[in-house]
Every structure is written in structure tokens, then in C-alpha cells.
Amino acid sequence: EADIYQTPRYLVIGTGKKITLECSQTMGHDKMYWYQQDPGMELHLIHYSYGVNSTEKGDLSSESTVSRIRTEHFPLTLESARPSHTSQYLCASSAPDHGPSNYGYTFGSGTRLTVV
Amino acid sequence: AQTVTQSQPEMSVQEAETVTLSCTYDTSESDYYLFWYKQPPSRQMILVIRQEAYKQQNATENRFSVNFQKAAKSFSLKISDSQLGDAAMYFCAYRSGNTNAGKSTFGDGTTLTVKP
Predict the structure, then answer these.
(1) By CB distance 3.0 to 4.6 Å, which of A18, A23, A26, A73 could disulfide with A91?
(2) Least CB-CB distance to B106: which of A42, A97, A103?
């Protein structure tokens, strides 16, 4: 059962629209991440967060922005969607380094975005 | 920057047989973690197994085990007694132990088919 939730699961939207992809986790994890994944391909980190009010850009340049006002919530926004933004977006979180967890990620189910 | 390479885009195995997925990585760090994640078709990505670089003993989780060769920078995943439910894309991932960000770098993935 998922402890990290992404909505919507699928989204088809027109060019130029503003969209927000939601990601919430109930585990109290400080670290959260957004990855972009094209079908059948590797994951690219686009944003991450150490905790509240902390956000950083990832390795892959992205026109999206993120915010982290609450620990559990890490939404991703595209101000003006374009067909090149069509992809799957995966949200993940990570437990504290020295806790009883396994240092791995817990992933959400992803949002598959299509911009037409 | 660290890189992760999975040289087998696709693998197949007969049900109940054993298969090994390959992964190599490049790093100059001594403190790091390695992971294998499983992404079934249209389903959530989950952590399969992890390995701390400082541990010599290979990790094992039920039918899943790794062969960690630190000097060779190799981290292969062995799946024993393969089941139909093992069919998925498998990603190898690297995480530095020297940063608080907890970012992971992923390989390109290996698609595993299990034949009945």
C-alpha cells in the first residue's frame, strides 16, 4: 500500500495551460524528489527538497517549479505546458539517513502527462 | 559525477529458472549505497534490495540476491526461482553517502520477461 500519493494519475492537457502535479506523503520524510521518466527509459532528477522551504534543481534542466511549504506536500507546477513536457513524472521520498529505514526511495504511482 | 550502466536492455527467463541482471557504476567515493528497484508495467516502482558499500557481505532478500564487487564497481542482481510476477523493468541506482541530499542516480533499466 502506497504511503506516497500522486494525483492525477493521467492528465491530457492543451498547450499553454498551467498545471500542478500533486505529491503527498504520510511518512514524515524530509527528503523528497521529482523524477522525469520517458516510456521505457531511465529516470532523470528534476527537483529535490531537503525539507520545508528547501528546494533545489536536479540534474536535468526543467521548466517546472516546485514548492515545499509543508513536509508532506511537494507539488510540481508547469506555468505553460508544451508538447515537449509530455512524460511520466515520478515523486519519491526518502527516510532520514540514520533511521531504521533502508535509505531507499518510496515512490508514488506517477503522473503520466500528455500535452497536446 | 557518478554514472550507472545497465548493459542489458532486455532479458528473459523461464519461470522457475534463475536470471542475473548486470549493473556497473563509476564513482570516486568510498561511502555509498546501491539499490535495485522494480517497476512493473503501469505500476508503482518499489525497492527490491539495497547494499551498503562498506559491507562485504552480499545482500539477500528472499529470492533476490546481489553480487557486489566493490573493486570492479559491479552490482548484479540475481533472481532465483523466477515467477511471472517478476516481469518488470529493473533499475540499478547509486546514492552517495557523502551528501545529505540523498539523491540517487539511476541506470537505463533492464526489461525482464518471464516465460511460463
Answers:
(1) A23
(2) A42
Cell of B103: 539523491
Residue A103: all three cell numbers together: 535509505
Residue B84 phi/psi, 5° resolution? -60, -35
Chain A residues contacting B via beta carbons under 8 Å: 2, 31, 33, 35, 40-43, 45, 48, 50, 56, 58-59, 90, 94, 97, 102-110
- Beta-strand runs (E) in chain A: 4-7, 10-13, 19-25, 31-37, 43-51, 54-57, 65-66, 76-78, 87-94, 105-107, 111-115
State how far the Cα of A21 lies from the Cα of A31, in Å rounded to an integer.
18
Measure in Å the smallest separation between the Cα of B90 and chain A Cα atoms: 10
Express each pLDDT in A48-96 by its tens digit. 998 999 999 988 888 899 999 999 999 999 999 999 999 999 999 997 6
Q: How confident is the model at residue A1 (pLDDT cuts 50, 70, 90)?
A: low
Q: Which amino acid is at A42?
A: E
Residue with cell 536470471: B19
